[in-house]
Fold this protein.
Amino acid sequence: MNLFLIDIDGALVDSEHIGVECYTQAVQDVLGIHVDADWSQYKNVTDAGVLDEIITKHQISESRSLIHRQVESRYLALINSYLAEHPTEVTQLQGAKDFIEQMRERKDTHLAIATGGWESAAKLKLRAAGIDVSNMTFASSSDAMSRTEIMALAAFRAKQDSGVTFDRRVFFGDGEWNKHASQELGYDFVAVGNNVRHHNHIPNLGYFEAVFSQLALH
C-alpha cells in the first residue's frame, strides 16, 4: 500500500504570490514588523514556524498563542479580501484535479494533504481553485510548526483513516524544505515544477504516471 502526501502551494494550487503578500502584510498589521520573504533563512518554513521565529527574534513578550491567532485571523481576512477583488487569481495547477481523482480511485494508494500553511488559509485557497479535499487526510501548520512533524502527522492520520500499514511513503512538493523533510523522514520525494532539483521530478501533476516508473511503483 502506498501513501502519497502532497503539498498545496506549488503542487496543487498556484497561490504562492498571494500567500506571501498577505502573510507579510498580516504580520506587519498585527506586530508592526517587516517580514523578509526569503523563506530559505527560516528553520521551519511553515506559517506557524516563520511567525514563531519572528516572535523570538524580536523578543516579543505577549502570549505566543494569542499572536498566532491574531496573525492567522488577519491573514485569512486579507486573503478573503484579495479573492473578492481578484476571484480568478488563485488557480489549480495543471493536472491537480485529475491527480486527486485518479489517486482516490486506486485501491493501492491513500492520498493525504500535508501543508505548511494554516488549515483555514490552505482550505480557502483550495476552495478558490475549485479543488475538493473533503474526506481526505489533512495535516497542516495548525497542527505543528515543522515540516517533518506535519508530514509525520499526516502519515499517522492516514494510517488511522485507512486502517492499513504503508509500504511506501511518497511526498509531492515544490520546495527545498519539502525535499529535506522527506529525506529526514525517509520518504520518497517527487519534485513538482521547477523550483527544486531532484532525480524524481515532474513538471506538474499531469505527469504523475512518470512517478510510477521513476519509483518502480505499480
Q: What stands out?
A: Residues 16-85 form one domain. The first helix runs from residue 16 to 31. The chain has eight helices and eight strands. The helical segments are 16-31, 47-57, 64-85, 96-105, 119-128, 147-162, 176-185, 208-214.
